[in-house]
TrEMBL record:
Gene name for this UniProt entry: cysS
Native source organism of the sequence: Bordetella genomosp. 4
Record-given protein name: Cysteine--tRNA ligase
Reaction equation(s) it catalyzes: tRNA(Cys) + L-cysteine + ATP = L-cysteinyl-tRNA(Cys) + AMP + diphosphate
Short sequence motif named 'HIGH' region, residue ranges: 30-40
Key words of the record: Aminoacyl-tRNA synthetase, ATP-binding, Cytoplasm, Ligase, Metal-binding, Nucleotide-binding, Protein biosynthesis, Zinc
Amino acid sequence: MLHIYNTLSRTKEPFKPAQPGQVRMYVCGMTVYDYCHLGHARMLVAFDVVQRWLRASGLTVDYVRNITDIDDKIIRRAVETGRRIGEVTEYYIAAMHADERALGVQSPDREPRATQYVGDMLDIIGKLEQNGLAYRADDGDVNYAVRGFAGYGKLSGKALDDLRAGERVAVGSAKRDPLDFVLWKAAKPDEPEDTKWPSPYGLGRPGWHIECSAMSKALLGLPLDIHGGGPDLKFPHHENEIAQTEGAFGGTLANIWMHCGPLMVDSDKMSKSLGNFRTIRQTIAQGEAAADQADYAVNPREAEMLRFFIVRNHYRSPQNYAPDNLVDAQNALDRLYQALLNVVPDGSPVDWNSAQAQAFKAAMDDDFNTSGALAALFELASDANRTRSAQAAGQLKALAAVLGLLQQDPASYFQCTTRYSAASLAQGGATASNELDAGQIDALIAARAAAKQARDYAEADRIRAQLREAGIELDDKPGGITQWRRA
Ligand SMILES: [Zn+2]
C-alpha cells in the first residue's frame, strides 16, 4: 500500500483518498513573470512523478495546478517592458509549457488561472468577513486576522508567537497583527487599468494566497486528497490557504500536504541576488535559447539528463546542483541507454510479478522512493547486458516509462552532443565548435565503408581514428551497418 509523508502530521501515512479509487490533487504552480528555473524544474518533475505513480497504481487522478497570472512581480514586469499584463503572462505561460515538454512533464488535467476566479475569491473574503476573520484596514486593503483562527501555525509547526518574532510591521502598516495578510489589495491610482477588478471594497486585486483557496474548492471540492508545492510555500502561503479555507468553510482543506525539497546551487540557495540563478532553458537548450522566444530547440539527451538528475534524488531531500553532479547523472543515464542499445527490448508491458517490478513498486509505494526504484532499473540493465535478454531490456524500458524515462531511440540519443561530460566541462562546459555534425559523421562513415570495400584498410583505420579524435565511437554491426555515438 502507498504511504506518503504528510507535512501536516510529520509522519508517513497510508494513502486513502476520500473517494476510493479517485485522487483529487492540487499543486501550487508558477507565477508567470519570468522563465522557469531549476527549482521549478524540480517541483514540476517531482509532482509529475507523483501523478504518474498514482495513475500507474490504478487510481483515477484529477490533477490541478494553478497559474498565478496577477501579482506584483507580473505588474512590475509589464510596466517595465511597456506591455499589458495579459501579454506578459501569455508569453511566460508558453515558455513554461515549452520547459515542461522538454522535461517530459505531463500536463496537469486542469490549469486554472487566478484571474478567472476573482468572483470565487470575493465570495470567500465575504465569508471570512462574516466569520470575523477579515477586516478592512485604514489603507483600503482587506486583511485576514490570524489571531482569530485557532489552527494558525499547524502546518509549519510553529506557535503564533514564534512566527510573529520573525515579522516586522512596516511603518504605517494598517495591519492589526504583523502576521495578518492581505486578502484584497485596494487599487492605487498609478497602477495599470488591467490590474483592477470591481469588488464590494472598491477597485482592487486579490492577494496571492486567496487564489488557491478559491481554485482548489471550485475545481476539486473539499477536502483535497493531496495538496502540494515547493518547499518555500509551507509558510506563509500554505498556512494562509488553510486559514482562509478552513476559516471560511470549516472542515479540512487537505488530508495530505506534500512539499518537495529545495534545489541548491553549489550548496547555496539559488537566488537572483547571488548570481547563481539558472533557468531550465539555459541548462538544456540546443545552443542558446533566444531571449524573446517562448519555445526553443531542446537537446533531448541533456533534457532527459536533467529529469533523471531530479528523479534519482528523493523528492523531499535537498538537492545540490553542481556541474559534477550533472556529469554524474548524464553518465548514469548513458549506462541505461547503453543497455537498450546493446539489446533490443522486446516491447512487452511491465510484468508486475517479476522480482524487479516488485522491488520498483515497493520503493515507489514508500513515499515515492525514486532512487530505490531506479536501483531496479540498473539491475535490469546489467541483466540485459549480461544475458542479452530482450525480455530484460523490455522490462527496463517498460518500467522506466512509469518514471517518464528511457523512451528515446537509443541510437539517436547517443548521437546528441552533451555538455555534461567530463571532457566538455574541462573545455568550459561548452560544446566544442569544431565538433562534427551528424551529416559530416555519416559522410566519413560512408567513406570508411567505401575504403573497406576497396580493401584499403589503412584508409578505413585512418578514418576511424579521425572520428575517435573527434569523440565519435563506431560500432560495426552485422550486415555492414555501422552505428556511431558521441563519447
Ligand atoms: Zn497556492
